[in-house]
UniProtKB/TrEMBL annotation:
This is Uncharacterized protein. It comes from Enterococcus caccae ATCC BAA-1240.
Length: 209
């Protein structure tokens, strides 16, 4: 099991994140004020960019099926070759739940955001065979609008993908571009959908997959 900390170091008018393994910085990204611009991501001496897909997003506004893909981003490698995509999906429009889909090198992974109140926000990561390969945990407390997460993954490839997702997710749902100084915010999220809650396995970190 690989454990990392995903830490936001800058929040106002553009954001900066670091992925840390013990005391080493192994990944970085700088987010423009407008999320729908290009996001440059570096990890393990590899460079990627996440590019918002304007056309796909426009088309999604007219799709009311469960196959709709919202807030779509494409992932390009350092040679500007399309290698993957990221988006939000829904099981159904009414009485369903939201989840996230990440495709990379012809493999597909799924992330499920599950709020457990004071126990925190848990985001398990599954492969296409419905096997859990990672767990992202968001801290309930943020200072000066800066988010922090703990990322647990089974190998370096899943680590990289979880890093991509964390950048995408935090910017879509948290960390507003607002000036904050010596502020403290406690955020509890609660999930009531039983099917969604069943995706969380509290024993994953102990090696019980």
């Amino acid at each position: 099991m690989i454990t990392n900390r995903f830490i936001q170091t800058k929040a106002n008018f553009g954001k900066i994140y670091e992925l840390r393994e013990e005391n080493r910085i192994i990944g970085t990204t700088k987010i423009p004020i407008n999320l729908r611009m290009q996001i440059n991501v570096s990890i393990a001496n590899k460079n990627f960019k996440l590019q918002f897909s304007i056309i796909k997003n426009a088309l999604s506004r007219f799709d009311y099926t469960k196959n709709v893909r919202l807030l779509p981003f494409q992932i390009f490698n350092e040679n500007n070759v399309l290698v993957g995509s990221l988006c939000e999906r829904r099981t159904k429009w009414l009485f369903g739940y939201t989840f996230f889909e990440l495709s990379y090198n012809d493999e597909t992974y799924y992330f499920y955001a599950i709020g457990l109140g004071k126990k925190g926000l848990k985001i398990p990561m599954y492969d296409s065979n419905d096997i859990q390969v990672g767990l992202i945990e968001k801290d309930n407390i943020s200072y000066d609008n800066k988010s922090t997460y703990t990322i647990n993954t089974l190998d370096k490839n899943y680590q990289m993908l979880a890093f991509f997702f964390s950048v995408y997710y935090d910017n879509a749902y948290y960390s507003p571009n607002e000036v904050a100084y010596k502020s403290k915010e406690i955020n509890y999220k609660y999930t009531i959908n039983k099917e969604l809650k069943s995706k969380y396995n509290p024993q994953f970190i102990e090696g019980r997959y």
